[in-house]
Amino acid sequence: ILFLSILDQEDVIVVTLNYRLGPLGFLFYPRKGITGNAGLKDQLLALKWVNENIEKFGGDSQNITLFGESAGGASTHLHLLCPKSQPYFHKVICQSGTSLMEWVMQEDPEGKAERLAKIVGCQSNSDEEIFASLMSATPEDLAIGAIRTLSEDEKRRGLPIPFKPVVEPPGDDALLTDTPLNLATALKSIEKPMIIGHNAKEGIIMLLDAVRKIDLFDEDLARIVPKSLNVVQGSRTCERVTEEMRKFYFSGDKITKKSIVELTDLLSDYHFVIANHVTAEIHARKEHRSPMFFYRFSYDGELNLPKRLFGLGQNKGACHGDDMFYLF
Questions:
Q1: What CATH number is attached to the domain comprising 127?
Q2: Which residues does the UniProt record annotate as the domain Carboxylesterase type B (predicted)?
Q3: Domain span including residue 65
Q4: Which residues does the annotation mark as catalytic?
């Protein structure tokens, strides 16, 4: 979709795209030929279209910038890491999202497909029956049933999106064949300029749920020990990490509704900030010929609309998504 925006003040053409989400975009059941990442492949097809046709709209096919916010930022970063995508763009902007974030990659994707099949009525454990049930279910039933496939661990850690990108088996159609971290660290060079950053108080958006579960954070702070630390839940090491988190963010005190500012910072770091910094560091190490710019958006003004739309306007700072209304 070509459209007018604040970006019209600059010499750019903005193209947005739609792609399949949920199980329609990220179902993974390779035993029956569903190898995953259909949503990412939709994006790649759109990229190819832009590359081939943008000059007809006054654009430059040799100067295409791929950008996105949140999940869009993560998708942008995934395409940066995928050799099949790289020829179709020249620069990237990742706003509040990269592929290294805790919430990006799908966990237990085959198990989710099997659970979804049962939710929509499958009575068998055979691959054929599971496949048939998934193929015959309505899009509405698949979308409604998807949330029920979340594991207890995902619910505990506050990861509400079940169907996401997966590591695909090798094949001609495969786009993502290794973990984002492995792909990022294996690249010898990423010759594309990058802008990457986050908002100062991303975690405000999480307060909608967190305030209702404040006791759970106090009783089970280990639920947001990042998996990237490779710490076994319930281990003594996990306990020590949790103790250090409580000291660092809450001065060792109980977590209560009076701790909202500190909890916001913890949720910001856990969901966005830490992985953003790690992504930027890896990119800087791998790319020596193209510039990288890192930003932190902290402005809290009239166009910080997501925060206000969710009734969180009393919290100071730039919430997740608050930057978008200064662009569009």
A1: 3.40.50.1820
A2: 6-328
A3: 6-186
A4: 70, 202
